[in-house]
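sanity check this record:

:::
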Amino acid sequence: MKTLTVCMPYAYDATHIQQLRSLLSAGIRFIEGEPVPPDIDILVDGKPQAKLLQTLPNLKALIIPYAGVAEETRTLMLQHPHIPVYNLHHNADAVAEYTLALLLAAVKKIVPLHNALRHNDWSPRYQPDSNGMLRGKTALILGYGAIGTAIARLLVPFGVEVLAIKRQLPENALDGPVRIFNMSDLPSLPPRTDFLIIALPLTPQTKGVIAAEELRLLSSNAFVVNVGRGELIDQHALYTTLKEKHIAGAALDVWYHYPSDEASRSHTPPADEPFGELENIVMSPHKAGGLSVEQVEEERMRALADLLNSLFQSDAFPAGIDLQAGY
């Protein structure tokens, strides 16, 4: 009988693991926790250690149980080109919904209005209205993978013209109402962009892809939303652009510094620059992906089961992500 041995070398929520097991084909043997048996076929781990891989001579695939690839994992797996690497896009809809919420909060000035009324201050209601509209505006989505596509699906019904940049330009260059461009077109697009939405993975090629030059091309009414990775944007250039109000605002869910341990979670600045002192920014602690959200975790288990079942049925494992590109 055909079998496939899979190991996730860390503890996970028991209910979700039970859900995963119930969805797997009968021939799949799923092991949770350490030690990792040396005869496994598939490892489910976002950041495997080199020493661990050396103990797994039969390893046929690595599954990263979320979107994106950490740079240390990409570098490690480039040394093992015979092992395909897969990841999951179970949370694309969750990220897209959160992106829309961030954009609306920034454009509609929800945070300052909320803060004022918490202190019984109604004066913003009677001031000249600075609330913007989505309808009739143009959004540029930088990164048109699973997440970028889901964001576009939400924006179009709002009457937003959607442009997108994709690494590999399709022949048609259209996805329904979405016009698709190549990365080489980036310099020409910001001047016509009201909402720059960044959903790229972080790779050596995409790090700092939005810097002072790109930000200068945006109009004073433009907004920047980042749900990709913090270092896609030069933080110093973005801070200066916001402080000097060369653009209308930004909404950031991804950052440059993260807590190193549980004790530091309550007092870790997310960047070198004091973004929290600015009035034209919405700040969020990397929650767009729906980590620990019950429905999203259920989707993760379904996506993982679907991938494992597909690999179990395959005579030969298909190619994984492009590690040279990083996605």
Summary: The chain has two domains: 4-90+293-313, 92-283. The longest helix spans residues 294-313.
